[in-house]
Amino acid sequence: MKILPRPEYPRPQFQRREWVNLNGTWEFSFDDAEVGIAEGWQDGRPLVGQIVVPYPYQSELSGVNDKEIHEVVWYARTLAYQPEWRGQDLLLHFGAVDYATTVWVNGQLVGGNRGGHVPFSFDIAPYLHEGEDNRITVRVEDRQDACQPRGKQSVTGKPIGIDYYCTTGIWQTVWVEPVPQVRIESLRMTPLLDEEALKLRVYLHAPAANWTIEADVLDGDEVVSTLRKDTHNGTGRLFLRIPDPKHWSPDSPHLYGLRVRLLQNGELLDEIESYAGMRSIELRNGEFLLNGKPTYLKMVLDQGYWPESYLAAPTDEAIRYDVEITKALGFNGSRKHQKVEDPRFLYWCDKLGLMVWGEMANAREWSSEAEEMFLSEWSRVVQRDYNSPSIVSWVPLNESWGVPEIDEGHAAQYAFVERAVKLTRFLDPHRPVIDNDGWEHTDVTDICTIHDYTATGEEMVAKYAETASGGPLPEKAWWDGSMTFAPGSIYRGQPVMLSEVGGFLIRPFWLPADKWDVLYDTYGSVSNTDELLAKYKDLMGSIASLPFVSGFCYTQLTDVEQEINGLLTYHRKPKVPIDQVSEINRSLRLQTNEAPAQFAG
Q1: What average pLDDT score do residues 28-48 get?
Q2: Which of 29, 368, 416, 597 is the residue whose CA sits 20 to 30 A from 374?
Q3: What is the pLDDT of residue 592?
Q4: What's the rounded Cα separation, in Å, for the pair 534 and 544?
């Protein structure tokens, strides 16, 4: 019997009982000559190859394992019509497809999507007929375009430096969901600790009419809050009181269950199951506060690549393991780097207790079209993940990727960064936004983050000695003279975090020196794992001694391809004793933050 890949429910915070997983073997073809549409591949003819969905063709688990660049690919499969679907809409869901997608059902064009990291769906009920031979066909374009949001996918298709193999096409679960024609479309949950309440906004797939919305909040099996509200609009707002709420935190990741029902004239039309975490985030006096308490962020950079499947997680167990090992190492947060991760990752962070910085996969070049591609997709990312209690900050841009001339005073690129922050705050006014993580910040960043791969604790302390004694921040960041703030911007008292540090590479003595990756000219390196542990302890202790720093992010959790600077190997084998790293991290206590002198007091 074949094992269904990724069989778990793909959308943990918005669950219905009925669904059908479409992962598994699909027909597949490359279309390098781009003749598929002209020849009518969408008309139902068989494709010549096969692929295992949801793994990209470049990966081993896909069954294709072709590392070359193919910018256009096709998928197809049949779908058996179920009699119980009559009278309902049938949503065809794609968790993520990189990058531009067109979908046909039974030869009829259903729709398209642009954006490689966000979910999309279509109602395919009008295109189906009874029987087992309904045909779904998918065409995907994934151009090697530096203006396309791509994260760490190499524009050459080959791993080099800090870039890796590409992930083209379907890389998250595909599924169908029978739903009522009038239904709940989405939920938006905002915890309000001071008011001991959960603010719930319910969006309906329905016209403005007479509807009733019911909601229950559960603590285990006990209903602790319930509310029934009539609405005459396509939305509803409920204010659910939760007396003496249990807070969500990494040490105590308490989650409340949530049931939401839609009724009309007493008839139940739709029901959704979800969950919520009660927690607050605040920045004050140079500190990060979780639930009103100063919290020192001890994060690790996690790129979310696996050797057998690249951006696509091989299993749900693999996702859970990465969260568990991160916590076991003594970190309280993950900076998910240049990737919008599978919702199951956020589920496990919510459930097990790990703070997350949500970051967008960036382009590498700038244009007006690149701006629109980015903003359109980023807005959907924030909306998708808004309800997750584990996300504590948003990071639209990293190291000026996509705005390469901001350091030269490029006004349009500077304005784009500020526009990305503005959009993020409009969508989510409750979390801090880091405009351009690492360096060249604008005037609107909520946190001043600095990437600094200084290799020893002594050098790190010396570099920031003036700031630690009340002086200004260094004008220039670590990399190639990059400015901490972009021209025209200044530090304004925000919390300061060293959001990339360490990155110690294992020297590959098994290779000739001329075969060592270019990263060895950039990061510090060590000869063995004992040296790695010693350097980690030295550097982390020195960073923790800097009174103005309110958190750090160590690079990185695992090796990825040629970048062998993880605390774990690419296959998730620890290089250093987990308990010793945990002991080091847990010994790093929050110290009183001090803004540089010009902003003190």
Answers
A1: 97
A2: 29
A3: 40
A4: 16
What does the alpha-carbon distance between residue 69 and residue 31 come to, in Å, rounded to a whole number?
Answer: 11
The rounded percent of the chain whose pLDDT value lies above 70 is 98
Q: What is the DSSP string of 490-524?
A: ---S--EEEEEEE-PEEP-TTS-GGGS-GGGGTS-
Length of the chain: 601
Regarding beta strands 267-276 and 222-231, do their DSSP bridges make them parallel or antiparallel, or are they unpaired?
unpaired
Helix (H) / strand (E) element for 302: namely strand 297-302
Residue carrying structure tokens 């083209």: 168
The 3-state DSSP class for residue 206 equals coil
**CA nearest 537: which of 586, 500, 466, 479?**
586
CA distance 120 to 170: 12
pLDDT over threshold 60, residue 590? no
Longest dimension (CA), the chain: 76
**DSSP code at position 41:** G
CB 382 within 8 A of CB 428: yes
Give the pLDDT confidence of 399-408 residue by residue, as tens digits: 999 999 999 9
Two tokens, residue 376: 């359109």
pLDDT digits (tens, 9 = 90+) for 165-221: 999 999 999 999 999 999 999 999 999 999 999 999 999 999 999 999 999 999 999
End-to-end CA separation in angstroms for the chain? 68
Question: 77 φ, ψ to 5°?
Answer: -160, 165
472 within 8 A of 496, measured Cβ to Cβ: no
Which among 140, 3, 123, 9 is positioned nearest to 76, based on CA atoms? 140
Residue ranges of the alpha helices (H) in 264-361? Answer: 316-328, 343-352
Which amino acid is residue 50, in one-letter code?
Q
Look-up of token digits 């008309």: 43
Phi, psi of 567 (to 5 degrees): -75, -20
Q: Indicate the DSSP class of residue 2.
A: P
- How far apart are the C-alpha atoms of 419 and 435, rounded to whole Å? 10
Cis peptide before 556 (omega within 30 of 0): yes
Contact assessment for residue 225 and residue 240, using Cβ atoms and an 8 Å cutoff: yes
Check: CB of residue 104 under 8 Å from CB of residue 44: no
